[in-house]
């Protein structure tokens, strides 16, 4: 398989947008299965919505890293940088626009997810091509693993902070 960055990025955006959108409903579709809840949103909190990007992009990234690591030695650092950036853009964009408007709007929530995904893959593509983040690969991997563990832990034991609270409750 030829590892073409642009094709990988476009495919990744489409994959994450589709699987992330569908995963929004998986917890309820599975009868609120606790295993499904570890990887998909269990409520409407911003933290839980970060899973919409994180887990699909992580799955996609691991496949691409496995397939392309020989041809593209900087692919892991690029994808992990994009994954972390995209995941944290979700609360950044959400709190920015709700702070300005004073309320949240579904169309803007969707736009936040789409923009965060596109930026995540754009950054991934740029960093994989330039190898600028390659010396940080280990640290990026540790940060991705730490965030993964936080998603698992905070699903059941969320701290008392606004990002973990369901705004519709």
Provide the fold topology.
Elements: H1 5-29, H2 34-39, H3 46-68, H4 75-101, H5 106-130, H6 137-156
Determine the structural class based on helices, strands and strand pairing: mainly alpha
State the end-to-end distance.
48 Å
> What is the strand tally?
0
What is the percent of helical residues?
A: over 70%
Mean pLDDT over the residues: 93
Q: Round the Cα radius of gyration to an integer and report it.
A: 16 Å
The residue ranges in which pLDDT falls below 50 over 5 or more consecutive positions are: none
Indicate the overall shape: globular
Order of helices and strands: HHHHHH
Percentage of β-strand residues: under 5%
Largest sheet: none
> Helical segment tally?
6
List keywords for this structure.
single chain, 169 residues, mainly alpha, 75% helix
């Amino acid at each position: 398989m030829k590892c073409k960055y642009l094709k990988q990025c476009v495919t990744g955006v489409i994959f994450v947008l589709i699987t992330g959108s569908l995963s929004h409903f998986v917890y309820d579709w599975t009868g609120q299965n606790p295993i499904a809840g570890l990887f998909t949103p269990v409520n409407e909190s911003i933290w839980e919505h970060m899973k919409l990007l994180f887990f699909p992009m992580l799955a996609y990234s691991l496949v691409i890293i496995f397939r392309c690591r020989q041809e593209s030695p900087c692919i892991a650092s690029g994808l992990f940088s994009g994954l972390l950036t995209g995941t944290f853009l979700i609360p950044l964009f959400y709190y920015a626009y709700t702070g300005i408007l004073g309320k949240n709007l579904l169309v803007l929530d969707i736009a936040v997810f789409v923009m965060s995904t596109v930026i995540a893959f754009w950054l991934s593509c740029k960093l994989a091509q330039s190898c600028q983040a390659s010396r940080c690969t280990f640290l990026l991997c540790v940060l991705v693993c730490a965030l993964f563990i936080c998603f698992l832990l905070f699903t059941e034991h969320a701290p008392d902070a606004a990002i973990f609270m369901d705004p519709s409750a």
